[in-house]
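Ops channel
N.P.: pipeline sanity check, posting one input/output pair.
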């Protein structure tokens, strides 16, 4: 695989055939010197269907303070209109049975939409974790590769220094007549 069997064995303690798809993809990208990281928001949003985007929007609005305050104002207006303004001809007199029906229908529709959005958020979190793993794995492989290069360079330099010391020792021994 990519002429890296020793590299795979050294860093993964498994054979190339035992590697998972993510590891193979990261190794290929590392070998080709390509970037693994992506914009997670853009990548995840690109895969979203219209219904999923709509569910996310509804959950975003339904969980905001502006929605809560607007809905509270709606409830107050409903109650005031049906108790004070229309005392004799209220379309939903106290105890507001029609309002209860409307609230129940809203809850029946809003709850599954919010659950869809939460499931999508969990899916997004898993997607983000997988991307983080890929980036971290590639970074770790690059660091290990740099360590190997530095170690090889240091060993080469050390070997050259030893040779120079040996030459100097021979010269000193010749000069002293040993």
């Amino acid at each position: 695989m990519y002429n890296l069997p020793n590299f795979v064995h050294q860093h993964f303690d498994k054979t190339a055939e035992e590697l998972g798809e993510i590891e193979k993809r990261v190794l290929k990208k590392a070998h080709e010197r390509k970037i693994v990281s992506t914009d997670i928001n853009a990548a995840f949003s690109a895969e979203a269907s219209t219904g999923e985007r709509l569910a996310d929007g509804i959950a975003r609005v339904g969980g905001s303070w502006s929605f809560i305050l607007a809905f509270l104002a709606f409830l107050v207006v409903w109650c005031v209109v049906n108790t004070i303004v229309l005392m004799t001809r209220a379309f939903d007199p106290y105890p507001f049975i029609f309002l209860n029906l409307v609230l129940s229908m809203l809850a029946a529709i809003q709850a599954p939409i919010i659950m869809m959005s939460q499931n999508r958020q969990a899916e997004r979190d898993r997607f983000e974790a997988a991307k983080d793993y890929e980036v971290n794995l590639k970074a770790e492989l690059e660091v290990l590769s740099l360590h190997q290069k530095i170690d090889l360079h240091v060993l080469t330099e050390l070997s050259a220094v030893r040779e120079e010391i040996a030459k100097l020792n021979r010269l000193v021994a010749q000069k002293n007549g040993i």
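N.P.: looks fine end to end. Residues 35-175 form one domain.
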